[in-house]
Design a protein that fits this description.
Layout lengths: L3 E6 L5 H10 L3 E7 L3 H10 L4 E2 L11 E4 L6 H10 L3 E5 L6 H14 L3 E4 L6 H9 L3 E9 L11 H17 L5 E8 L7 E7 L5 E7 L6 E8 L2 E6 L4 E7 L1 H5 L3 H8 L7 H8 E7 L5 H15 L7 H17 L1 E4 L4 E4 L4
Parallel strand pairs: 1-2, 1-4, 2-3, 4-5, 5-6, 7-10, 8-15
Antiparallel strand pairs: 7-11, 8-9, 9-10, 11-12, 12-13, 13-14, 15-16
Helix pairs in contact: 3-4, 4-11, 6-11
Length: 346
């Protein structure tokens, strides 16, 4: 196996985990970590057997691939020299601070032939992978992603920080782009939106409802999918997939329950037969496999095989385009200013 020489640019709260995982992977050598903060950079480099550099320009010329985990506003500056040179890059989500910059990075990778993967790590969540296989054609999707305020990622708002994950999942589940977008939000701590709800109207009358907040008292990451196979609830934190599907008898005769109710002298007595007899519940516990490790394995495989990863620049740009539509439509209330205001992308 060819040993890939890789570097991580930005080794803060997330980048240090990329460095740790890469340092432990077979066929990979963590050839450098980059961070302008010397104490942080040296600590991570020493901990994982690498070399600290204050600037990406100081990395060796023979680096095969980079992981970019800097603040979003620095993604273009950090990535463009590598993509222009054809060097593979995994860039943390969102791909860039604006949709225009995201398109630029995607175009640079296409022009040079560089592998570009974007860190929408929920695609690698085993619970989501199970749901994707089971849901059939999606008719309605509700996504809830809320958490306490972490004082991280303050250079972007809740749309690019949190909702972008579920936008990407929604596009993967439906396979389409929205025909229209409505959104509303609130600025609580600021300076950007902290809580947002959005409705995406997809082709074929499919509806996607998204809630994202970083000022919730407890964390929650859930999906509810109404599809052609039934209803599926996904807890992305607990990694449980709960499904409700028609029993074999009801699936074979869709009007069965209605006909039984019509013939019953006391239809109210039938309520205990709905769940269990006519609608069956299934609960699956998904694998404990680490999603970030799976994401990095796919990236290294793509670098070796020059293949297209599941979350390529194209998918990331599509998610950014929808996020931009959410921001363009966003009417945001601020309890600081006590009036409505319109919030734009950072």
């Amino acid at each position: 196996m060819t040993v890939l020489k890789m570097a991580v640019i930005g080794v803060g709260s997330l980048g240090q985990h990329h460095a740790r995982i890469l340092s432990e992977m077979d066929g990979v050598r963590l050839a450098g970590v980059v961070d302008p903060r010397e104490s942080q950079g040296r600590q991570i480099a020493d901990q994982f057997g690498s070399v600290w550099h204050p600037r990406a320009e100081d990395l060796p010329d023979d680096i095969d691939a980079v992981v970019i985990a800097t603040p979003t506003v620095h993604h273009v500056a950090a990535a463009e020299r590598f993509l222009k040179a054809g060097t593979a890059a995994l860039i943390e989500k969102p791909l860039a601070a604006t949709v225009q910059d995201a398109r630029r990075l995607h175009e640079l990778a296409q022009k040079s032939g560089a592998v570009l993967q974007v860190g929408h790590v929920e695609r690698f969540n085993p619970a989501f992978e199970k749901a994707l296989q089971q849901c059939g054609t999606v008719r309605y999707l509700r996504c809830q992603r809320v958490s306490p305020y972490s004082f991280r990622s303050t250079d972007i708002g809740a749309v690019h920080d949190l909702m972008i994950h579920d936008i990407d999942l929604a596009l993967a589940l439906t396979g389409t782009m929205p025909e229209s977008v409505e959104s509303f939000g609130a600025v609580l701590i600021g300076p950007y939106e902290d809580s947002v709800v959005a409705r995406l109207r997809m082709p074929g009358r499919t509806i996607v409802d998204l809630t994202a907040s970083r000022v919730a008292p407890q964390a929650e990451r859930t999906l509810q999918i109404w599809g052609s196979t039934g209803c599926i609830s996904v807890d992305l934190q607990a990694r449980t997939v709960t499904s409700w599907t028609a029993s074999a008898a009801v699936a074979a005769h869709p009007g069965l329950i209605a006909s039984i109710a019509a013939a019953s002298p006391n239809p109210l007595a039938l309520k205990d037969r709905v769940f269990g007899e006519w609608i069956e519940k299934g609960v699956e516990q998904a694998s404990e496999r680490d999603a970030l490790t799976a994401e990095l394995r796919e990236f290294t495989d793509a670098v070796r095989g020059r293949t297209v990863p599941r979350v390529s620049g194209r998918e990331a740009v599509r998610a950014m385009e929808v996020a931009d539509q959410v921001l363009q439509a966003l009417h945001c209330w601020s309890w600081q200013d006590e009036h409505d205001s319109r919030v734009r992308a950072a």
